[in-house]
Design goal:
CATH topology of the largest domain: Protocatechuate 4,5-dioxygenase, Chain B
Mean pLDDT: 94
CATH class of the largest domain: Alpha Beta
Structural class: alpha+beta
Low-confidence stretches: none
Number of strands: 18
Oligomer: single chain
Distance between the termini: 49 Å
Number of domains: 3
Strand content: 15-25%
Helix content: 25-40%
Strand order of the largest sheet: 7-2-8-1-10-9
Number of helices: 14
Length: 467
C-alpha cells in the first residue's frame, strides 16, 4: 500500500543555510552543492511524507522519542536567526502506528508533545538536526507531511530492528515516504574541532563513507564501538536506523560529497532505493552477535561464570544464588570487585566495591553482579529477553595505594581513585577509549562530582581482569 521512495544521509550544519553561513559557505561548497542536489532528488521522488531521524531530538537511554505535536514548528533562534522558521503538519496516524509496532517488538518509544516535553524537560519543537536538511528540502519545493524522531542508546541491533519496524509501517501506510538520516560525522578531525582532535575521527569518517559507498551495510553495522565512540560523531545511529529501514531493498548507493571543514565531517549519501529484492541483513547480524556471545561464554572462567549465573537467576526468578560450595581457592580471599555487563559490545551495567564488604570474593561477585544488572543508575534494569545477548567481566581489585601525582599513573596498568572530602570517584584501568592519564582522572572526577579546580587526593590500584 505504501512505498519507500528514498533513503538519504544528510548533515545538519546551520552554517550551510545561506542566511546564517553567508560567505562561509565557500568553505564548504561541495557540501552545499550536494545538499541542494540531494534535496532536489527528494522532491522529485514525490513523497507524501518526510521522515527525519535527528541526533538532536530528545534523547533517552531506553526509548526512541517521536515528536507528537499536530504541527511541527521550529526556527534557528538559537543561532540568532529566529526569523528562519518552519512549520509542517505532523502525520499523527503514522506516528501512532510506528510507536505501536515498535512497542510490540519491545522497542520502547515515547511521543513528545508539548505536555510530555514539559514533563521530561525536553523540547517538542524541531531541532537544528531536522531544520538544516529541511531547509534545503523546503527550498527544493517540499510541502508534504513531516515525521520527526530521534534515536536512543539502544544497541546497534535494536536500532537496526527499529529501522525494520519503520520500514513495515511505511509499507503499510498510504502514500510515498522519503527517509532522511540526519547526522554529522566526526567532530574531532582537527585540533581546533569542536570536540578536540583524535586520529579516530578521520579513520571513522573514511571507513563509514567507504562502506556506505560500496553498499557494505553489514560492515557499517559491525564497526568497532570504540572507534565509533572515539570519533565523536553524531550520525552513526541515524545511519543504523536508516539501514534497517532499507533492509531487503535493492540499493545503488552514491556518495555525493564528503569533506571536513571546521573540523567536522559532512557526508551526503543517496542510497538510491530500488525494488524490494535485495539481501536481508537482520538475520545475519543476529547470527553474528550470537556467535560472538557463544565464543565469550565458551571462554568464561569460574569468576565470570558465577557473575553471569547470578544475573540470570536474579533477572529470571528474583532469586540470589548461593555461593559455590566449597568456595574455589581463587574466590576465598577478600577484595573489592567490579562486575561489568555488556550488550553487543556496549556497556549495560557496571557496579563494584572499592574495598571488600562480603565474606569472600564469591559473595562480592554475586551481589555486585546483581547490582550491575538492576541498580546501575545509568541504565534500566536488565530484562529477561536481553540475557541471551549479554557478556560479562569481573575485575578483582588490588589494595589501593596513595600516590603523589598523576605522573605515577598509567591508564593501561592502574585504576585510579580520586577523592575530595567524602566524595570518591573510581575508574578501572585498561578501558576502551581511555588512553591518557588526563582523561582517566577527568572521568573519575566527573563520576564523583568533583569539579576541575578542586584539590584532590589520588590513589592507584591494579586489577586482575576476568573475562
Amino acid at each position: 500500500m505504501g512505498e519507500l521512495v528514498m533513503g538519504v544521509l544528510m548533515p545538519h550544519p546551520p552554517v550551510a543555510v545561506p542566511q546564517i553561513g553567508g560567505n562561509r559557505i565557500s568553505d564548504m561548497q561541495p557540501t552545499y552543492d550536494a545538499l541542494e542536489k540531494i534535496s532536489e532528488r527528494v522532491v522529485k521522488s514525490s513523497p507524501d511524507r518526510l521522515v527525519v531521524i535527528s541526533p538532536h531530538s530528545p534523547l533517552f537511554s531506553d526509548a526512541i522519542a517521536v515528536l507528537g505535536q499536530p504541527e511541527l514548528i521550529g526556527d534557528f533562534g538559537q543561532f540568532g536567526y529566529s526569523s528562519l522558521s518552519y512549520k509542517y503538519s505532523n502525520d499523527l496516524e503514522f506516528v501512532r502506528n510506528l510507536c505501536e509496532a515498535a512497542d510490540e517488538q519491545n522497542l520502547a518509544t515515547v511521543v513528545i508533545d508539548e505536555r510530555k516535553g514539559r514533563s521530561y524537560g525536553v523540547s517538542h519543537r524541531l531541532d537544528h538536526g531536522v531544520l538544516a536538511p529541511l531547509h534545503f528540502i523546503r527550498e527544493a519545493g517540499y510541502a508534504g507531511k513531516l515525521v520527526c524522531m530521534g534515536f536512543s542508546m539502544f544497541s546497534v541491533e535494536e536500532l537496526f530492528a527499529f529501522g525494520t519496524v519503520l520500514q513495515e509501517v511505511i509499507e503499510e501506510s498510504p502514500g510515498r515516504t522519503a527517509v532522511v538520516a540526519s547526522g554529522d560525522l566526526s567532530h574531532r578531525l582537527t585540533p581546533s574541532a569542536p570536540a578536540g582532535y583524535s586520529p579516530l575521527g578521520s579513520q571513522f569518517d573514511e571507513a563509514l563513507m567507504e562502506l556506505l559507498g560500496k553498499g557494505d551495510y553489514l560492515g557499517v553495522l559491525t564497526m568497532d564501538p570504540t572507534a565509533v565512540e572515539g570519533a565523536g560523531e553524531c550520525g552513526y545511529r541515524s545511519v543504523v536506523i536508516l539501514l534497517g529501514c532499507v533492509d531487503g531493498y535493492e540499493t545503488h548507493p552514491e556518495v555525493l560529497s564528503y569533506e571536513g571543514p571546521f573540523g567536522v565531517g559532512y557526508g551526503v549519501v543517496d542510497l538510491k532505493v530500488g525494488d524490494k529484492r535485495g539481501p536481508r541483513l537482520h538475520e545475519r547480524l543476529i547470527q553474528r552477535r550470537e556467535s560472538e556471545v557463544q565464543q565469550a561464554r565458551a571462554g568464561e572462567d569460574e569468576l565470570v561464570s558465577l557473575c553471569r549465573r547470578a544475573v540470570e537467576e536474579y533477572v529470571r526468578h528474583r532469586r540470589t544464588i548461593d555461593s559455590p560450595s566449597p568456595v574455589p581457592s581463587e574466590m576465598q580471599g577478600r577484595a573489592g570487585v567490579f562486575c561489568s555487563i555488556k550488550k553487543n559490545g556496549q556497556l549495560r551495567g557496571c557496579i563494584g566495591t572499592i574495598e571488600p564488604v562480603r565474606r569472600n570474593i564469591a559473595e562480592e561477585i554475586i551481589h555486585n553482579a546483581i547490582a550491575a544488572a538492576t541498580d546501575d543508575p545509568r541504565f534500566p534494569e536488565v530484562r529477561p529477553d536481553e540475557l541471551r545477548w549479554l557478556t560479562y567481566s569481573v575485575d578483582v581489585l588490588g589494595k589501593p595505594e596513595p600516590i603523589e601525582g598523576m605522573h605515577q599513573l598509567d591508564p593501561k596498568r592502574y585504576g585510579v581513585i580520586v577523592s575530595s572530602g567524602h566524595r570518591r570517584g573510581l575508574l578501572l584501568p585498561n578501558l576502551e577509549g581511555v588512553d591518557t592519564v588526563e582523561e582517566q582522572v577527568r572521568i573519575a572526577r566527573q563520576k564523583a562530582g568533583i569539579s576541575r579546580g578542586e584539590n584532590v587526593s589520588l590513589q592507584r590500584f591494579e586489577v586482575v581482569r576476568h573475562k
